[in-house]
Specification:
11 helices, 6-stranded antiparallel sheet, elongated
């Protein structure tokens, strides 16, 4: 798949991605490009970086490599990864549940018709239509019209009645009922969904970070293996020519060839590791249309950034974990939901005592037009309902279950808090230890570089052996690889520290 630039022009981000910036040192020009184009559109980056590839091949020559910065990688994962999109559905589900809970307070119209006819006799016809309006305070308002006709009405009433009144609980369901409890829990469910969303996103970004820095290390391993093989190959050819003219012993050419073959094997293994790591990174890359993307062979990871973390940063992260860690927030919202359920369960221990009152009026006809009379206190319908279980075993059992659940959640919260804070501290310790190791390893690399250069000069003057040169060079490459390994571990440790604190950055 080829990219069409159009009109012979390239935008700034295209120039940055297509420029042959791999020269004497692979990261010599990367920093300014990363800073200049950090905030460019994700869609543009997708168009250039993620060209579909059918299979893995050997990496592209250095002059065509293009850097794929870590920040851009994170942005793409956050924007298009299926898990990230799935996480965004959690608040939507919570809003739907909240809408359902609010539906318990919707006004409703009720109408029913009851008729009885037997042996040709019209016993009765009862028709009733009313509007019922629930409220947050537990009082239900009701207004309607009923019509009763028939020859055998029990307790005959006026044929037509218009009424308006209310129903109010006096004990059970007065301060809280099932409708209000469900609505309150649904409101807390929105916050719980937000916490779960953050938790899912943090996890996928953390996994993506580890995969990216593994890819970084395999690339550095491949780069150093390539460098070592090229050095061994050039030296073997030079030693072989000198051995032919008698300037060196023939055994030196054999040793040079052994070194060359050994480094060739290392290069082949490093190539496979780099290709496999690239495939693992591709697992996190998706387009806006939810189609999987693969890293092209020209893409290589950006450089590691050495960001130090001090004691002040640790305190900030610990406070962040206590106040905003998604797992701890979820525990808090679950406890608040259970407290609502406990309050409702305690209310159910009270007897059911409900008061119903309706004003009544009978329409009168004036010039064949029905006009209702004014509601009068002496025209009303009044009732009181009372119910009380004798043992309350169901209600007491439910209350006890809720209290046990609250205790379980609190114990889980305490343990999780301790583990999270200790995890932050442990991750911080790992970061500081790796900082010290990096400083020591950089010094070791510089010292070994001096030894290698001195040994090469001695060899050129005939005062050293090829064995010592190869030994110094192998040690130098080994120390550089160890340095890159520590850099990758350091970046993963920073990601671990941020994840332990409940965030995505330090």
């Amino acid at each position: 798949m080829k990219l069409a630039i159009g009109n012979g022009r390239r935008s700034a981000w295209q120039l940055a991605l297509f420029s042959p910036i791999w020269q004497t040192h692979p990261f010599s020009c990367l920093k300014k490009f990363t800073i200049a184009f950090k905030n460019q559109a994700i869609v543009a980056l997708l168009a250039v970086i993620f060209l579909p590839t059918a299979h893995c091949q050997l990496p592209t020559p250095p002059d065509t490599l293009q850097f794929f910065a870590y920040d851009d990688f994170q942005d793409l994962v956050l924007s298009h990864h299926p898990v990230a999109k799935q996480a965004e559905l959690l608040p939507e589900l919570a809003r739907a549940e909240l809408l359902e809970a609010r539906g318990f307070f919707d006004p409703k119209i009720v109408s029913y018709f009851d008729r009885k006819a037997f042996k040709g006799l019209d016993y009765y016809n009862r028709f009733d239509t009313y509007l019922q309006v629930p409220t947050w305070f537990g009082v239900d308002f009701k207004a309607g019209h009923e019509r009763n006709t028939g020859a055998r009405l029990t307790n005959p009433e006026s044929p037509q009645l218009t009424y308006a009144g209310f129903s109010v609980p006096l004990a059970q369901n007065l301060l809280i009922d099932a409708r209000r409890a469900t609505l309150r829990q649904a409101e807390l469910g929105r916050n719980l969904a937000d916490a779960d969303r953050v938790k899912l996103i943090n996890k996928v970004l953390f996994d993506a970070a580890k995969t990216y820095w593994d890819w970084y290390f395999t690339y550095q391993q491949f780069r150093l293996a390539t460098e070592g093989f090229e050095l061994a190959d050039v030296r073997f050819k030079a030693v072989a020519r000198r051995a032919q003219i008698g300037d060196l012993a023939p055994i030196d050419s054999i040793e040079a060839r052994i070194t060359r073959q050994d480094r060739l094997v290392q290069l082949q293994q490093a190539t496979v590791d780099f290709q496999n790591a690239r495939l693992l990174v591709s697992n996190f890359l998706w387009s806006a249309a939810s189609t999987p993307l693969e890293l092209p062979e020209t893409a290589v990871p950006g450089p590691a950034s050495f960001r130090t973390v001090d004691q002040e940063s640790l305190e900030r992260l610990l406070n962040q974990a206590r106040a905003a860690h998604p797992e701890l927030l979820a525990f808090g919202y679950k406890l608040r939901q259970l407290s609502v359920e406990e309050r409702f369960s305690r209310n159910q221990l009270l007897p059911a005592l409900n008061l119903n009152f309706n004003f009544l009026t009978e329409p009168k006809l004036y010039e064949d037009t029905p006009i209702p009379n004014t509601f009068l206190l002496n025209n009303h319908k009044f009732s009181v309902n009372f119910a009380m279980p004798l043992f309350l075993r169901k209600e007491r059992g439910k209350l006890q279950q809720v209290r046990v659940k609250i205790g379980q959640i609190r114990y889980d919260q305490q343990q999780a808090t301790r583990e999270i804070l200790n995890d932050v501290q442990a991750s911080f310790n790992d970061v500081k230890a790796l900082e010290n190791q990096l400083n020591a390893q950089e010094l070791a690399v510089r010292d070994q570089d001096q030894l290698l250069n001195a040994e090469r000069r001695k060899f050129d003057m005939g005062e050293s052996s090829l064995f010592l040169v190869n030994s110094r060079e192998s040690k130098f490459l080994e120390l550089r690889l160890k340095l890159e390994d520590l850099r990758a571990k350091y970046e993963k440790a920073l990601a671990q520290l941020a994840y332990a604190a409940g965030g995505t950055g330090v």
